[in-house]
From TrEMBL:
Keywords: NAD
Native organism taxonomy: Eukaryota, Viridiplantae, Streptophyta, Embryophyta, Tracheophyta
Pfam families on file: TIR
Superkingdom classification of source: Eukaryota
Source organism (scientific name): Brassica carinata
GO BP terms: signal transduction
Transmembrane segments: none
UniProt protein name: TIR domain-containing protein
UniProt-listed InterPro entries: TIR_dom (IPR000157), Toll_tir_struct_dom_sf (IPR035897)
Sequence ranges assigned to domain TIR in this UniProt record: 44-193
Amino acid sequence: MISRLFDFMKQSKSIQLNNKHSLDIYTNTYTYHKASSASSTPKALCDVFINHRGTDTKKTLATLLYDNLKARNLRPFLDYKTLKPGDHIFDHINGAILTSKVAVTVFSPNYGHSYSCLHELALIMESKKRIIPIFFDIKPSQLDVVIERVRCPDDEIQRFRRALQEARDIVGFMFESDKGNLSEVVTSASDIIVQRLVELEAEDENF
C-alpha cells in the first residue's frame, strides 16, 4: 500500500486556503498502538474509518470524503456505503474500527445526540487509533453528551464523556458551512490521511 500512497503524495499540490477563519488545518499527535504481534491482528477491513452523524453530514462531508479516499485507491469505511444487506451492523462497525489504521471523526451539532456516534468514538479512543477530527459547525468546547437523548447507564455516559474530552485535545479541522469551502476541507483532510497512513506503514516496517 505504501507505494500507492507515495504516488498520490507526489501528485498532490499544496493548497492555499483563502479563508483562514473557516478552515484551520493541523496535524494531530494522537498515537497508534500496534497489536502485540502481526499474527494476532485480524485482517484489516478498511484503511480509514469515518465516524459521523448521518443527519448532519452524510449527504455532504462524509460522502465526499469517502469518495475522495476511494479515488485514491484507499479503503474507507462509511456505514451506508460499506454495509450490505444481511450484515450485522455493530459487528461490522466494531470490526472496522478495530482493524482500521486511521479514524476520521466528524463532529457536528447533533453528534452528541447519537449513542452510535459516541460508542464508535469511545472505541476509537480506547483502541488508540490515529485520529483526524473535523469540527463541522461546532467548536470543541461544545462537545458533550446530550443525556436526555442518549439513554444508557451512567458508566456508559462517563465513558462517552472521557472520549469527548480526549477528542477536544486533538487539533483538527475547523469548518463552518456558511463560510468554508467543502471541497477544500475534503481534499486537505484526505491529504493528511494519506500522510498518516504512510507514517504508519513506515512504523510497521521499522518495528
